[in-house]
From TrEMBL:
It comes from Linnemannia gamsii. SUPFAM superfamilies: Hect, E3 ligase catalytic domain. Pathway: Protein modification; protein ubiquitination. It comes from the Eukaryota. It is an enzyme of class 2 (transferase). Its EC number is 2.3.2.26. Keywords: mRNA transport, Nucleus, Transferase, Transport, Ubl conjugation pathway. Signal peptide: none annotated. Residues 288-315 have a biased composition (Low complexity). It is found in: Nucleus. The active site is at residue 954. This is HECT-type E3 ubiquitin transferase. Residues 259-332 are annotated as: Disordered.
Length: 987
């Protein structure tokens, strides 16, 4: 019956019926399909007979329930001094805004109140009189109530007359925020031309004359409020205003989509040349171009648009393409330059809370998409930053004078720090301005679940020891190579930072920190200067990442880059103690601008590096939800092979994010964490099982391991190395410690750091001595070597050229340094390149290369194996002395200094002298040297006391100069163990 009836009805009637049902309120739908009111069969039959054209359903215009006078009566409730029921009025206004005419009238009334009634009490009275039908002033009745006595009904506490303008403005902002949050078309009201809005200025020009703004966009009126003292001086109102503006400006983000699409098209091979010619006009055209996701049209034209859409729906005729484009076209508003400058002044005028700053950044980001707006905003920010930098430098001069005359840290309190402490201080404003510039021009961060690009696995270079510090780790070179491709915005922001000429300001900050560093009781003053230090980090954001060759003059580019880089390195190294204290007290700093410190990892202490590393390593944790636990049932005596079989078919992410659940075959233990720890320890021992031929012990100490060049005897050796890399990476990720110690050169390969001939000592001490002798002496007519090396693999001898035709090139005095470099590369890198490559493939599946590279080789050992438990008394009892005695002042001062060290510094000292932080199972009495057991030795260094202590790890020997004081000895010893990256004869 329903199908026959539907077939007899015209298609236009069926479409109107469907549109009516789709627009029914939820309360009438009752949660059911709207088609059920007339029968699903009815509509299904109708649609099957004549399927309608696929067109978006057009919402019908809501009925206008109140006229403008009735609406004004509702608005009068906002002038009541008594508190209003929470959100009751706002919900009513949101519902009334479903009608376009009511919405326009309501928003106009609220804007007029903010414009006229936000100045003082008299303005509130005038604004209320406009809302009132009878035009009675607001506070006449209120004053009568306040003055009456004996009233039966209790009256609420009166509101202070000074707060009435703020109260009315606050309620208007709350209503506007509520409306634009729940009505999308209300936001576009502010962005479109609207004739009905009268835009006035609160100030008066002449007598009785008000200034006017020549604009038809309501958003201009809201922006103009930023100049009113009542809003600028009130932090709460300013936060409300910027929150409202951030919501209203969101539709402007659609302007960026045509630009992004144009940029993508620029990369295509077919249109690349053509797009280059049209690039000049592309940006201008994109601002006015139509988009499929454009915001709705202006409220004034809603009714006519709806009518046309309904007519088109009811007929078979299709609208012309041009007309459809005009309907969806979003014309961006025209914002006066003065209003754009006012937005910037929010950052530098008065106190700006963190929330206000956040919303202001959002407003600036969206407004900057308008044609020419970003240049105006940038110019204003640069001007503000320059002025604030000058003022801050003057304040630093005053603080510096106070620090010189102060006898204690208490005397610095008060007026000296008052200029730096509050959020309205000059340094806080400077930081906000610089962060805004950075926010406008920086590339967007990848989402948390975005895949991380794998770093290309390359062998670490071999260099001379003097060049080791100047070569970046492999991972940092890879990261820099990606970031060297700065886009135009990032090149622009580097030019802006250079144009600010803040070199004198940063120099002054550095000298002030030096004064603070000299006085231990004034460290708290450095914390007060945190915004200034953070500003320095923002300006130095692209240090070390700028391209070495640009289209500008090479000399100028080099000069600018070097000056900034040198300033950054000098500043961070000179004030490393204060910076480390700040980071240690507030680890969250490393998530912001202070993360730049990882570009100079030498100045960061191990605990701060480890905290940053752990924080960043577990930051991308969204993928963890995809994986549960990884069940493993292994035999204790075959832990290595069983675990290898379990992990062979697993992906890197599965191993990384899954929780290990281990069960040993034949044992009843339930894994609550302890079984997994035991599994790691047993596996670490079996990794070095000689039967697998994967690693061999170091010839120097018999405790550390190096990949075995002959591991190829096991056909699966490369897969085993990849598995070992995964195991060590998983242990680091889960925070487990392994009893696994490697040679310095292998740690360097993990970090991508360069190796040099001094690393040969760990694998072949005698050959290392011959290399040292060759470098230190004239070898003319003495050494009979060529640029080749002979290898012996189980009796199979062959000659390997170190360079093309090397077997025919003799080693001479002139080329001996080149020979040492090549032979070092052959022994430490090329001979085990396949093993290193496979290990790093597995390791980097778990640990990103750019994160692990912030450590040095000593710190990497501590990260993998943990800090050793060092018994100082046992260490002292097993020490031997040469040209010193146990009662020598230097020896007494040495052990006194060791006791004053923390656990990390003691581990570094043990690494410095012995080459590893591992204490033998038999204690210090079982320390291994080149010829077996070799106890810890301290030898007198008869050279100058200006030299640092030096070490010979093959003999567990420390050469200690005859320092006169305890303080000098302790400082020199700390410098040696902290700054020396190799531990071999450092001086």
């Amino acid at each position: 019956m329903g199908a026959e009836l539907a077939a007899s009805l015209p298609q236009s009637l069926l479409n109107d019926t469907q549109a009516f049902l789709n627009n029914l309120p939820r309360s009438l739908r009752g949660g059911r399909d709207p088609r059920s009111f007339l029968g699903g069969e009815f509509l299904r039959a109708g649609t099957s007979t004549a399927p309608p054209a696929k067109k978006p359903s057009v919402p019908r215009e809501a009925i206008q329930l109140v006229d403008k006078s009735s609406l004004a009566t509702l608005i009068r409730l906002m002038f009541l001094p008594q508190p209003l029921p929470r959100n009751i009025l706002n919900k009513l206004l949101v519902n009334l805004c479903e009608n376009s005419k009511t919405r326009a009238e309501l928003l106009s009334l609220l804007l007029s109140i903010l414009q006229d009634g936000g100045a003082d009490l008299a303005a509130v009275d005038r604004s209320f009189a406009q809302m009132s039908l009878r035009g009675k002033p607001l506070f006449k009745a209120h004053q009568q109530i306040k003055g009456s006595k004996g009233s039966a009904a209790p009256t609420p506490a009166p509101v202070s007359m000074d707060n009435v303008p703020n109260l009315v403005a606050r309620r208007c902002f709350e209503a506007l925020h509520y409306i634009v949050s729940y009505n999308e078309q209300a936001s576009t009201f502010f962005l479109n031309e609207y004739e009905a809005v009268t835009l006035k200025r609160g100030g008066k020009k002449g007598k009785g004359k008000e200034k006017t703004i020549e604009s038809k966009y309501p958003i201009v009126l809201l922006l103009d409020l930023l100049e009113r003292p009542i809003f600028v001086q009130n932090a709460a109102l300013m936060e409300q205003l910027m929150t409202l503006l951030s919501i209203i400006c969101r539709p402007l983000a659609t302007l960026a989509k045509p630009k992004e699409e144009a940029d993508k098209e620029m990369t295509t091979d077919e249109d690349k040349e053509k797009k280059k010619e049209e690039a000049a006009g592309a940006n201008v055209a994109s601002d006015a171009s139509s988009g499929t996701n454009a915001a709705p049209t202006a409220p004034a034209t809603e009714s006519s648009t709806t009518t046309k859409a309904e007519e088109a729906t009811g007929s078979d005729a299709k609208p012309e393409p041009k007309a459809a484009e005009e309907q969806n076209e979003f014309q961006p508003p025209v914002i006066p330059d003065h209003c754009l400058q006012l937005v910037v002044r929010v950052l530098t005028a008065g106190e700006c809370s963190s929330r206000t700053f956040q919303y202001t950044l959002s407003v600036i980001q969206n407004l900057s998409l308008l044609t020419g707006a970003r240049d105006i905003i940038t110019t204003e920010l640069i001007s503000a930053a320059r002025d604030l930098g000058t003022d801050t430098r003057e304040d630093l001069d005053t603080l510096s004078q106070t620090l010189e005359s102060a006898m204690s840290g208490v005397e610095v309190q008060g007026m000296a720090l008052e200029k730096f402490s509050p959020a309205s201080s000059k340094q806080a404003k400077l930081l906000r301005a610089l962060k805004t510039i950075d926010y406008m021009y920086s590339r967007k961060q990848a989402p948390a679940n975005a895949p991380v690009a794998q770093v290309n696995i390359e062998l670490a270079p071999t260099v001379d020891p003097e060049e080791a510090d100047s070569v970046l780790p492999r991972s940092m070179r890879d990261i820099n190579s990606e970031l060297l491709n700065l886009n135009k915005d990032e090149e622009k922001v580097t030019e802006i930072y250079d144009s600010l000429s803040f070199h004198e300001l940063w120099t002054k900050v550095g000298s002030t920190l030096e004064q603070i560093h000299e006085r231990s009781d004034m460290i708290h003053v450095a914390t007060v200067l945190l915004p200034l230090i953070e500003s320095f980090m923002v300006v130095c954001k692209y240090v070390g990442l700028r391209p070495s060759t640009l289209e500008m003059e090479e000399e100028v580019c080099k000069a600018n880059t070097n000056s900034t880089e040198e300033l950054f390195l000098q500043f961070t190294e000179k004030h490393s103690k204060i910076l480390n204290i700040m980071v240690r007290n507030n680890p969250a700093l490393m998530s912001g601008s202070f993360s730049l410190l990882v570009h100079n990892p030498k100045m960061l202490e191990f605990d701060n590096k480890r905290n940053y590393f752990t924080q960043q390593l577990h930051k991308r944790n969204t993928a963890r939800d995809l994986y549960g636990s990884l069940q493993m049932n292994v035999r204790r005596e075959w832990v290595f092979m069983d675990s290898y079989s379990h992990w062979q078919a697993r992906t890197g992410d599965e191993i990384k994010y899954s929780k290990l659940n281990v069960k040993f075959h034949g044992e009843e233990g339930v894994d609550g964490g302890g079984v997994t720890r035991e599994w790691f320890q047993v596996l670490a021992r079996q990794m070095f099982n000689p039967d697998y031929a994967m690693f061999k012990t170091s010839a120097a100490d018999k405790l550390t391991y190096q990949p075995n060049r002959a591991s190829w005897v096991n056909p699966d050796h490369l897969l085993f190395f990849k598995f070992v890399g995964r195991v060590i990476g998983k242990a680091i990720y889960d925070g487990r410690l392994l009893d696994a110690y490697f040679t310095r050169s292998f740690y360097k390969h993990i970090l991508g750091r360069p190796v040099d001939y001094r690393d040969v000592e760990a694998i072949d001490p005698e050959y290392y001595k011959s290399l040292v002798w060759m470098l230190e002496n004239d070898i003319t007519d003495i050494v009979d070597e060529t640029f080749s090396v002979e290898t012996d693999d189980f009796g199979n001898k062959k000659t390997v050229d170190l360079k093309p035709n090397g077997r025919n090139i003799p080693v001479t005095e002139e080329n001996k340094h080149e020979y040492v470099k090549y032979i070092t590369e052959q022994k430490l890198t090329l001979a085990i390149k396949d093993q290193i490559h496979s290990f790093l493939l597995g390791f980097h599946e778990i640990i990103p290369a750019h994160l692990i590279s912030i450590f040095n080789e000593q710190e990497l050992e501590l990260l993998i194996s943990g800090l050793p438990d060092i018994d100082i008394d046992e260490w002292k009892n097993n020490a031997e002395y040469q040209n010193y005695t146990q009662s020598s002042p230097q020896i007494l001062n040495f052990w006194r200094a060791v006791r004053s060290f923390d656990q990390t510094e003691r581990a570094k000292l043990l690494q410095f002298v012995t080459g590893t932080s591992k204490v033998p199972l038999g204690g210090f009495a079982q320390l291994q040297g080149i010829s077996g057991i070799q106890k810890f030795q301290i030898h007198k260094d008869f050279s100058s006391t200006k030299r640092l202590p030096s070490a010979h790890t093959c003999f567990n020997q420390l050469d200690l100069p005859e320092y006169e004081t305890y303080e000098e000895l302790r400082q020199q010893l700390l410098t040696a163990i902290s700054e020396c990256s190799t531990g071999f004869a450092f001086a």
